[in-house]
Amino acid sequence: MANIRLITWMPGRVGPITNALRALNNHQWHETYAGLGFGSREEGVLKRITGNNPQAREFQQKALALAACDRCDLMIGTFDWTDVLFYIIHAYNVHNKITVLVPHEAVFASESEYYAGTIPITDVALVWGEVQKNIFVNRGYPENRIITVGTPKFDPLFNFKPQRSWETLSKEFGLSPQLPTILFITQPLDYQFPAETLDIQIQAIIDTLRWAEAHGAQLLVRLTPDRSADILGPAVAAIQESHHAAIDGLEDGGSRRLTPHESIYYCDAVVGFNSTMHLEAAMMNKPCLSIMYNKYSALWVERGGIPSVTSASELGVVLERFLSKRGHSFSPEGWRWATNCFLGGWNDGRSAERIGIVLDILAQANKQNVHEALAQAEIILEREYPRLA
Q1: Model pLDDT for residues 254-266, shown as the tens digit of each residue
Q2: Is residue 300 part of a domain?
Q3: What span, in angstroms and rounded, lies between the C-alpha atoms of 375 and 254?
Q4: 270 vs 110: CA distance, rounded Å
Q5: Which residues of the chain, if any, have pLDDT below 70?
Q6: Are residues 310 and 182 in the same domain?
């Protein structure tokens, strides 16, 4: 049984991935929450170390001390582009521990901005699919240290069945179990989007609400987990005044009543800017669209072929089509692209299994023979997990 140190940035923020990893019974997990730290690696570590920042120096020493006394066989992080995570993973590298990236963040807008424009410093990257792999390789990360496994984030979607009924859940929001429901996925819209996009999101929510009110539908807004309701601005009052809308995450300290998968399962259409939940909607055969009132790089539109709207009138036309004809809205070519680039060529709900196989092999390896261990793991994965045609 391998002892594995799992470093994440905050409890509950990467739950689907960390929960799936902890469920791998042949490993003993030791979880540490690191926090976000002082800034990005580019703006935090490089500048603040050279500027002799006392806080950064102190944390660097603590990270080295943690790694020195840690008896774990492997160290796993879900990202390392902030300085605190960078310090920790660097410390494990210094002390000759194998470090592994299992990324929790997808590429959903600008490829150039993904991962804060950097590459991992881990020995190994277990990526979702070809998009992440190509980004890292093009920036200089060694291709022979990358294995495509899919992501545990999507594993529960395979044959998903909710445990709670919409009859009960809808009443908790003051919504009707009979009316068509439009799910609006909010986003923090930070470094991957133009600055004005946050205000545009507010307008798009209000536009969706007004259409729902006028067409016998209802709106459920899912608040993003890492931002408070203030990102919704005047949309909060408009929703609270309506009998056709609710916000999941407005109360109870921002905790959501529905899981992401329940939200999609019980809705009839998904609206938002580029989000991994657009892909999850397609995996559950639900239609989705991207709001593009302004211009930004939108992978699901450009490569996946889903509809985009540039105005309230276009939004209404697409929503009316969605509610009259069911099924996901990726093009056939776009779905094949998404399967390869984000699901690793699989759609089987077994990503965590594949990660477990790689970790079993790495736990028996050392820094000097990581490449050989990964080559062995690749052979096993190709044999045991045939990809979709």
Answers
A1: 678 898 899 999 9
A2: yes
A3: 44
A4: 21
A5: 9-15, 34-53, 108-109, 190-192, 226-228, 252-254, 389
A6: yes
Range of the domain at 325: 163-331
φ/ψ region of 161 (left if φ > 0, alpha if ψ in -120 to 50, else beta) reads: beta
Residue with tokens 């902890």: 22
Element (H, E) at 221: strand 218-222
**pLDDT score recorded for residue 42:** 42
Q: Sign (positive/negative) of CA torsion 73, 76, 81, 85?
A: negative
Tell me the three state secondary structure of residue 39: coil
CA torsion through residues 374, 380, 383, 386, sign: negative
Reported as type and span, the H/E element at residue 99 is strand 98-101
Instruction: Judge contact between 337 and 331, C-beta under 8 A.
Output: no
Contact 80, 125 (CB under 8 A): no
Count up the domains in the chain and report the number.
2
Residues 175 and 149 occupy one common structural domain: no
Same domain, 23 and 98: yes
- Of the candidates 187, 14, 9, the one whose C-alpha atom is nearest the C-alpha of residue 108 is 187
Token output for 162:
């909710």
Question: Reading across the β-sheet that carries 98-101, which strands appear in turn?
Answer: 27-33, 2-8, 74-77, 98-101, 124-127, 146-148
The CATH number for 67's domain is: 3.40.50.2000
Instruction: Please answer whether residues 370 and 124 qualify as being in contact, where contact means their C-beta atoms are separated by less than 8 angstroms.
Output: yes
Confidence (pTM):
0.81
Tokens of 113: 């901005």
Q: In sequence order, what are the residues at sequence separation of 6 or more whose Cβ sits closer than 8 angstroms to the Cβ of residue 188?
A: 224, 226, 227, 231
Cα 211 to Cα 135: distance, rounded to the nearest angstrom: 39
- Residue 296 CA to residue 194 CA, distance in Å, equals 7
CB 130 within 8 A of CB 340: yes
In this structure, the number of other CB atoms found within 10 A of the CB of residue 193 comes to 22
Does 141 share its domain with 48? Answer: yes
Q: What is the pLDDT of residue 10?
A: 62
| Residues 207, 252 within the same domain | yes
Tokens of 279: 């892909």
